[in-house]
Design goal:
Length: about 350
């Protein structure tokens, strides 16, 4: 199982941006030193109460320059907000600097306020996503290309650099709605799922529909599944639960406010229903069903169960879900994940 950490470069009230960047980079350095497989970077805009990670490719380039082994993942680049040529150039540059260590995760995001700020209609997000992904792949795989689409048209463009060794970086696609999972399977991409808003029991059905889409398209074998999950690890069960409680509770309050705002702006029933489910969640509710909290042995045991029951190929561990867990405790959780959990999943 691939073991990664999902990082938001969180902001903390009363502490400066430079201080928080320094702490986050120290965690990246520790993850490289202790043997983490992948450092995953979010893309989140206009949320100073939560995060400073609005430019994941810039951070990825900095990580590439200070590491040698660990892969660097984007989870996820919000494609409809991007210009496809600029995106292809910048992502391929990261792949070159890292010598092929980029994993290019892509998605649409459900944060309608971000689309409004970027002046991109959210109702166009699905079509824009598909078009931009096609353009990026052509830019990476052809010396010159021409493209005619609804939103973008290019003629005889030579987009450089190409990715490392002229080989496309691994591309993984995020899904959150029931119809998206089989569609991604049919297209042949590895998929991202998340337990932030749905329990692990629902992930099983999502993965099954993804694999059905994969098989229905005549693809051999099975598609790869990667799941992002709030997670925390400490030396005892009691410490793990106590140290994560404030931060996880804070996170779910912010998630409710975020989705409720998207529901207000879009009027979409899916957002309205999701916000209502989040509104009443307690820490006790999310423990076990959404969030994995415990000792290295109990966390490893749970991940083995999920690997065997659902078919999970990798985990994106949100070790500081909510951003309020102190730096030294996050470092300890990274160490335990790498040194004590990971060996039990090889």
């Amino acid at each position: 199982m691939e073991i990664g950490m999902f990082h938001e470069f969180p902001s903390v009230p009363g502490r400066g941006e430079t201080e928080m960047f320094d702490e986050s980079m120290a965690q990246v350095d520790a993850a490289e030193r202790w043997g983490l497989d992948v450092m995953w970077l979010a893309e989140i805009h206009f949320a100073p109460e939560r995060t400073y990670l609005s430019a994941p490719l810039s951070i990825a380039s900095a990580i590439a320059a200070r590491t040698e082994r660990m892969k660097i993942g984007i989870a996820v680049q919000v494609l409809p907000l991007c210009h496809p040529l600029r995106l292809a150039e910048e992502a391929a540059t990261v792949d070159q600097i890292s010598k092929g260590r980029l994993i290019f995760g892509v998605g649409r995001s459900g944060v309608v306020s971000t689309y409004d700020a970027y002046q991109v209609p959210y109702d166009e997000s699905r079509e824009r996503f598909a078009e931009i992904l096609q353009i990026v792949e052509k830019a990476w795989s052809e010396p010159r290309f021409t493209y005619e689409g609804r939103f973008h048209s290019f003629h005889d463009v030579a987009c450089v650099p190409h990715p490392y060794r002229n080989k496309l970086p691994p591309i993984r696609v995020a899904a959150s709605t029931p119809d998206t999972f089989p569609a991604i399977g049919a297209q042949g991409y590895p998929v991202f799922a998340s337990t932030r808003h749905v329990p692990w029991s629902d992930i099983a059905g999502q993965v099954a529909s993804y694999q059905e889409g994969w098989k229905s398209a005549g693809r051999p074998g099975r598609g790869q599944v990667y799941v992002g999950a709030p997670m925390y690890i400490a030396e005892t069960e009691e410490r793990a639960r106590a140290e994560a409680e404030e931060s996880v509770t804070h996170f779910y309050r912010l998630q409710y406010e975020l989705i409720a705002e998207s529901a207000r702006r879009s009027g979409r029933q899916a957002f309205i229903e999701r916000a209502e489910k989040l509104r009443t969640l307690t820490y006790a509710d999310v423990l076990g069903r959404n969030v994995i909290v415990g000792t290295p042995d109990s966390v490893a045991r749970r991940l083995r169960e999920l690997r065997d029951e659902i078919g999970v190929d990798g985990i994106l561990a949100e070790l500081n879900c909510g951003g309020l867990i102190p730096h030294d405790r996050v470092l300890n959780a990274i160490r335990l994940l790498c040194q004590e959990v990971k060996p039990q999943l090889q």
